[in-house]
Amino acid sequence: MTKKLYISTYGCQMNVYDSARMADILSPLGYSLTDQPKNADMAILNTCHIREKASEKTFSELGRLRNMRKAKQESDKGDMIIAVAGCVAQAEGKEIMKRASYVDMVFGPQSYHKLPEMLAEASRGAGHILETDFPVEAKFDHLPNEAIDKNLSAFLTVQEGCDKFCAFCVVPYTRGAEFSRPTTDIIAEAKRMITAGTKEITLLGQNVNAYHGDGKNGKTATLAQLIYELAELDGLQRLRYTTSHPLEMTDELCQAHRDVDILMPYLHLPVQAGSDRILEAMNRRHTGAEYRRIIEKLRGYRPDLALSGDFIVGFPGEAESEFEDTMQLIRDVKYAQAYSFKYSPRPGTPAAALESQMIPEEVKSERLSRLQALLNEQQLAFNQSFEGKAVSVLLEREGKREGQLIGRSPYMQSVYLQSPPHRIGRVATVIVEEGNANSLRGKLKPSSVADAA
Ligand code: SAM
Ligand code: SF4
């Protein structure tokens, strides 16, 4: 009999990938995914610890799951195993067990390949299970081979962990040291994905451009070399990678943006701040001028490259003039898209100890709204610059409206158009009629329909 598995995923794309892998691991044990937690036989919260708000959600959602389990038990519909995975599990495993004693399992991002063993232990009544070690053996070696994302556009984790230790960030503590998968494993997984119908692969890593996996002939391969190898695969139409650190944008990788035609002209390259003093306090290890030079070089190789970034406002001690440096950097670079956050002190990180320099919440909020107004303005201008132009769009799914399809442009914009659903999976040429704040609206170019195989 099939059992129902509910997974709630918070945070970054790596968690999205991990949740899909957990479903793959549990599938041979009879679990099939449901989006209805109240009927679930097992519920997993795959959590995010990056900011306080994200972290807090764990406990409120756990409370809801506890009530659903109670209702299920009371109506004689069986039990529900409740598990907490991801970075909150890694960082606060013991605390979760204490605060929410009804939780059956807590396991970190490096342990989920042990799910079958953990389930067996739980069913033997072994009590609460806590797995937050960084095991010596690589998790990836223990994942099922058929572990593939069947989406048209899918993620493939190539690197995990981070050795950069930015002063504000918990990732090096929750995900551990940098680890890169061997190229042969990645190529094999990519081939399986392509066979299953994937047209676009996004290579994932906390620090993806620091990738240094075992390559051919005993040599270490760089991300650029991996990209060149993947670009040879038949049937792969688009390639992306995220998230990158500016320090790792080598010449070789910048040139790949000129030379590899399936490498999409869009790059997420977080800078966090524009002031050199703040960048140093953040331990980012580059200046604003160095970041600008990297962008210039990239645009030299690929003039239409669209950029996205991450920004933190109100890092401890950030003066108004230093915040203004961030605004100036944004004006200079011009982003197509961006993510911005108020600084959130994370326990155990060096910046959290700078208590006397914390910026008041209302100052952070005010700076964030000025910064987001500028970024929104740039995003709208970027989208409007496509009006009347043709873009290639990977048609991914049906929209909410009758006859509507949604796809993505090479520059990561969502594109809405009218088209019959059988065209899903094709790359079509779309004439953009309107550029909006968060998307483009267009129509199929008539001649592109036949050639859009
Ligand atoms: N590895 C990437 C990098 O180097 O930028 C991204 C890591 S993190 C998952 C995504 C973003 O969250 C960061 O780029 C940063 O902007 C933000 N972030 C991390 N820690 C934060 C904190 N303590 N407060 C606010 N934002 C934070
Ligand atoms: Fe966090 Fe910095 Fe590593 Fe990115 S590079 S994951 S921000 S420590």
Brief summary:
The protein is an alpha/beta fold and 453 residues long. The protein contains 13 helices and 21 strands. The strands form 6 sheets. The protein has a 6-stranded parallel beta sheet with strand order 2-1-3-4-5-6, sandwiched between helices. It has a 5-stranded mixed barrel with strand order 17-18-19-21-20.
Overall 3D shape: globular
Question: Would you identify the regions where 5 or more consecutive residues have pLDDT less than 50?
Answer: none
**Spatial strand sequence of the major β-sheet:** 2-1-3-4-5-6
Total helices: the number is: 13
Q: Give a count of the beta strands, DSSP E runs of length 2 or more.
A: 21
Q: What is the mean pLDDT?
A: 93
Strand proportion: 15-25%
Structural category:
alpha/beta
- Major β-sheet annotation: 6 strands, parallel
Percent of residues in helices comes to 25-40%
How would you describe the overall organization of this protein?
This protein is α/β, with parallel strands linked by helices and 453 residues long. Helices cover 35% and strands 23% of the residues. It has helices at 13-26, 52-74, 86-99, 115-123, 171-174, 183-195, 223-231, 251-259, 276-281, 288-301, 320-333, 361-384, 448-451, and strands at residues 3-9, 31-33, 42-47, 81-85, 105-107, 129-131, 153-157, 159-160, 179-180, 200-204, 212-214, 220-222, 238-242, 266-268, 306-313, 337-342, 390-398, 404-408, 414-418, 427-435, 439-444. It has a six-stranded parallel beta sheet, with helices on both faces. Strands 17-18-19-21-20 form a five-stranded mixed barrel. A three-stranded parallel beta sheet has the order 7-10-13, sandwiched between helices. β5, α4 (115-123) and β6 form a beta-alpha-beta unit. α7 runs parallel beside α8 (251-259) and α11 packs parallel to α12 (361-384). It is globular, with a radius of gyration of 23 Å. It binds S-adenosylmethionine and iron/sulfur cluster (SF4). Residues 12, 50-51, 168-169, 171, 206-207, 243, 245, 270, 272, 310, 312, 341, 343-344, 346 line the site of S-adenosylmethionine. Residues 162, 164-166, 169, 171-172, 206-207, 245 line the site of iron/sulfur cluster.
